[in-house]
Amino acid sequence: MDEGNPLEEVLDDARQRVAAAREQGDAYSVAWHSARAAYALLQLEHNDAALIEFDEAIRIVEAVREDGQHEVREALGTSNLYSGEALPRLVDLYAWTSVGRAAALARLEKWVEAQAAVDACRPLVKGWGRRHLRTSLNEVADEVTRAVGSTQDALAALERVIANPGVTADDRLQARYERAALLLDVERIDEAKAESLLLIRDCDLADDTWTLSAARQVLGAALLASDDISAGTATLRLALQGFLDTGDLSAAVGVAPGLAWTLSEAGDHHGAAGVLNDALPAARGLAADSDTYAQGRIAECDLLTAMGSVRDALADVAGALLAFEGAVTIATSLKDNVRAADARHGEAVVRATRLAQDHDQAVDALALLDAARADYEQAGLTERAAGCQHECAALLARLKSYDAALARYTAARSAYLELPPVLRDSGSWPDEVADCEANIMLLDRLREDSNIAIDTGAFASGGHRMRHAE
Question: Helices (DSSP H) in 188-248: which residue ranges?
Fold first, then answer.
């Protein structure tokens, strides 16, 4: 027990009283003190244990109610038969415990069960003298709505939290951050910027580095949505550093890939590499903890795949291959075939565009692309599979294997045409079908006369621009 912590003292007292009541066979008191223990656990943020305790208390309350003896006790005055301790009425105990159970479910992010528990509690908190229970239940309901409700309902719930004078300053800042993030999600960009700017000011004054960083993340994304790339990336860099400083490794690895991509797209490849280098230790830190091992390994895999693309853009062939190969190793160990395919695709592009004058490197590139294509097809990602076919065609054409290239371009075009339009033109080529058709026409001419001039830009690689985000 944490010495001097009042909640720990309440928990210890409740458990002692539960044990005493069990010895006396007093189920009513067992239920009451089990509920007290559950609430103490909830406030101590031992949410799994709290839920177990709430369930036990409710089970006992229901058994006591079915027994009917509570009616006699309530008529005589509800108290512990042995100690004389005052106890709540059974109906009040049931309501209080049920509201606590709903809160525990919400804390555990079991949103469907939490919503059902809130709905079941509504009839229990009606009537005179239960205003405090209604208030508590409404707070739980708002928490559920914030997580899974409609945008309008979630915004309304957040407004209630922000306006509630009983809410702590920290919780109010958190609600304001959630509101800003939600405004961004629904593309109310100007409002998201305004809210996050005010929040940044207030977090700075409150010395709340985490919420300050989270607000900067929202502001940075809003600035990017407004095409202010310079300000957006600068703000996101501050957010990333803040998350690293506060030790929120999960948030850090969440910011880094998108920020690095944006910097790379803007031509700042060194900046992108710096962001990825900063984030990689965070991913490895997550992997070092058994509770976040998988998250950390997945994050490291994604960061290495991104690093491979950036190192290639910086003409660091060895660094690019090392990064992609590292990502393949991690993805394979996780049995994540799609991530392995993403990394193999990247490695193949490097070998095909930087090293293909070496026959063995060209063969390796084709093998990597075909392996990636097979994994994409098995995963149902036909647009990525078509991209691998397209990349193979371009490499074969550059190697002057015109018949093989023609077959690949034709297959890629057919695959693209079978896709819904929204899945075409995913970034690798400005117009994938048009690129295939132009190169098919050129290959037909080359098969007739291999000495004709080849247009600049013909048989181009799609590079690392294939969209990997789900």
Answer: 189-206, 209-225, 229-246
Residue 130 DSSP class: -
Kindly report each contact of residues 125-129 with a partner whose C-beta sits within 8 Å and lies 24 or more positions away, as own/partner: 125/95, 125/99
Residues 6 or more apart whose Cβ sits within 8 Å of residue 392: 366, 369, 370, 373, 408
Across 454-470, b (16+ Cβ under 10 Å) vs e yields eeeebbebbbbbbebee
> How confident is the model over 129-137, as a mean pLDDT?
84
**Residue at token pair 């710096």:** 274
d(C-alpha 296, C-alpha 80), whole Å: 52
Q: State the chain's maximal CA–CA distance in angstroms.
A: 108
pLDDT for 420 equals: 87
CB count in 10 Å sphere of residue 358: 11
Angle at Cα 232 formed by Cα 229 and Cα 235, nearest 5°?
A: 145
Q: Where are the domains of the chain?
A: 1-149, 336-470
Which H helix or E strand runs over 335? Answer: none
- DSSP characters for 115-183? HHHHHHHGGGG-STT-HHHHHHHHHHHHHHHHHHS-HHHHHHHHHHHHH-TTS-HHHHHHHHHHHHHHH
CA dist 466 and 346 (Å) reads: 9
**pLDDT tens digits for range 277-323:** 999 999 999 999 999 999 999 999 999 999 999 999 999 999 999 99
How many C-beta neighbours within 10 Å does residue 382 have?
16
Query: Where does residue 208 fall: left (phi above 0), alpha (psi -120 to 50 degrees), or beta otherwise?
Result: beta
Under CATH, which architecture does the 1-149 domain have? Alpha Horseshoe (1.25)
| 171 touches 161 (CB < 8 A) | yes
This prediction's pTM: 0.72
